[in-house]
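Could you please consider the sequence and fold appended to this message?
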Amino acid sequence: MSAVSLVDQLVDSFKAQGRIVIVGASLAGLRAAEALRDNGFRGALTIIGDEPHEPYDRPPLSKQVLKGWVRADHTKLPRLRPVDAQWRLGVAAVGLDRSNRQVLLANGEKVDYDRLLIATGTRARPWFNPEEAALLGLFTVRTCDDAAKLAAALQACPRRVLIVGSGFVGSEIASVCRELGLPVTVAERGKAPLVGALGGVIGDIAAQMQIEAGVDLRTGVAVEGLDADADGHVRAARLSDGSVLDVDVVVASLGSIRNVEWLDGAQLASGFWGVACDAGCRAFDINGVVTDNIFVAGDVARAPHVLYEYQFMSQEHWDNAVSGAEVAANNMISLETGRRPHLPLPSFWSGQFGVNVKSVGVCSFGDEIVFTQGSVEQRRFAAAYGHRGRIVGAVTFNHGKWLPYYASLIERSAPFPPPPPGYDRPANCEPMPARFPDPREPTALPDVVLTGHDPTSRGAEFRPRTR
């Protein structure tokens, strides 16, 4: 028997009898399970999730659900095919025994695996004061249960809503509040909304959009504390500028935390930015050695990208979760020559204040920006970001049909400023500083982060909070 046919037999044997465990029952976990079955895996498949719900769609939670258009429990993700898996929902993974190839569960059980996919995603960063975090009227938005509770609070017509943080989720919630006719204040420690992801030039535009919509936007301020009534319901917020706001609902939109604590002691390269993996989704250990049977996908993955100087990239976007899951599934059951790279060009969209905001590439990698099409005044434009003479990102406001054009420029490292389009040129086509804040500031963490070249990097340096 030839060596080739022997290897093929081993692969076929694994597809028929292997054991694959997926930790994370959300978008990446579901799509990975479907891709495994599509690629011929017939062995035992177990999906573990800490929430009791089947996989559901998260983007509508801060949009359609809060508007009352869709119920939170009606956001279940469509199944593209049967996955024939053992679902272990409502029980969290609390440890990983790599020596015995077992996932340890919170109920004391152990689940054996031959291949493991880590797709545990992120969770909302909690309120900084543990005592205040228990107050009634204080919300985060990450799960469908979170969204359902906040939607009910908004439907009760509070006197004022305070949103702490003006990234994409915070800005979307502010937009929903204004559509519902609710008074809303946004407190942002940075200089403008969206500044971490899109820079100060676009941040100024986003700020003007909020103000024009009637948002009480407070930038350069922090919330120092919350006050409650005798029933434990939040009634006031104290800001760092000395002002006090009467509020009934507070939404903490403070960013996310990657769910890696359960991997403590597993000797994997996991930390603040997620679990490091190679371009084929194989996890690194703490010595920078790639593993053979542990893979990573979705928001918790941190992988190098050829377009961005091979820096490790962490990104929290739908397309990354889907494509990463599909690549990981393929590579878990393929020989070396059949493995594929996962090199997505980050993209996202956000709907806020009547504007469809779309972006592609890593805008925060750029240090310059140039408006290339449309009109800033009309909130209908495209802008490109540059770094060292090449285009690295682009953003559009109500001009999304042009995004594939800019994506193609980024993918081939086209020069910056990019060639002028054939029509609809803005009055000012001169590059200018993009004005991104210091990335060490916690308020400025974007949804796509470049984290250097060290696969074992675990920390992030933050400036101390000033009052």
The CA atoms of residues 312 and 451 lie 5 Å apart.
